């Protein structure tokens, strides 16, 4: 019975969902490894464990029932997790590279294009959205 459940569950796991689980586990391992350098490591560990369990339970319930809301959430939950992980990855990146790399990327832009495109685009398209987009 156990093998049949795993076989049925693994056959309906979508590639994007599998990537979400792999990324969640990788970030969890990273947080555990850098636990001494993070003030809120225990909270982050608990959040990742709970998020992984909740997402797995969602997938199991979605596959057992054919409810339209669960099917729609199949599309939106990975996007929500990606945005949450994106923000958190930026924070965790500060453990590896403690300084901003703006000068390095500005030099690369000038080497590639002969000018700093982000400055020219910011002047052509003023506004906070475009400034963040081209930064």
Average pLDDT taken over every residue: 78
Largest sheet: none
* C-alpha Rg (nearest Å): 20 Å
Strand content: under 5%
Number of strand segments: 0
Low-confidence stretches: none
What key phrases describe this protein's structure?
7 helices; single chain; 135 residues; 81% helix; 0% strand; mainly alpha
Short description:
The protein is mainly α and 135 residues long. It has helices spanning 2-11, 15-33, 41-64, 68-96, 102-113, 117-124, 128-134. The protein contains 7 helices and no strands.
Architecture overview:
This protein is an all-alpha fold and 135 residues long. The protein contains seven helices and no strands. Helix 2 (15-33) packs antiparallel against helix 3 and helix 3 (41-64) packs antiparallel against helix 4. It starts with a helix and ends with a helix.
Helices and strands in order, then pairings?
Blueprint: H1 2-11, H2 15-33, H3 41-64, H4 68-96, H5 102-113, H6 117-124, H7 128-134
Helix pairs in contact: 2-3, 2-4, 3-4
């Amino acid at each position: 019975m156990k093998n049949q459940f795993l076989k049925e569950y693994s056959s309906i796991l979508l590639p994007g969902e599998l990537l979400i689980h792999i990324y969640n586990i990788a970030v969890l391992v990273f947080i555990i490894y850098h636990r001494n350098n993070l003030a809120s490591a225990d909270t982050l560990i608990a959040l990742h464990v709970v998020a992984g369990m909740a997402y797995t339970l969602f997938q199991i319930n979605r596959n057992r029932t054919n409810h339209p809301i669960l099917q729609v959430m199949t599309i939106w939950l990975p996007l929500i997790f990606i945005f949450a992980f994106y923000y958190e990855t930026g924070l965790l990146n500060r453990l590896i590279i403690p300084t901003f790399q703006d000068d390095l990327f500005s030099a690369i832009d000038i080497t590639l294009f002969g000018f700093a495109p982000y400055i020219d685009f910011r002047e052509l398209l003023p506004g906070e959205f475009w400034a963040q987009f081209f930064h």
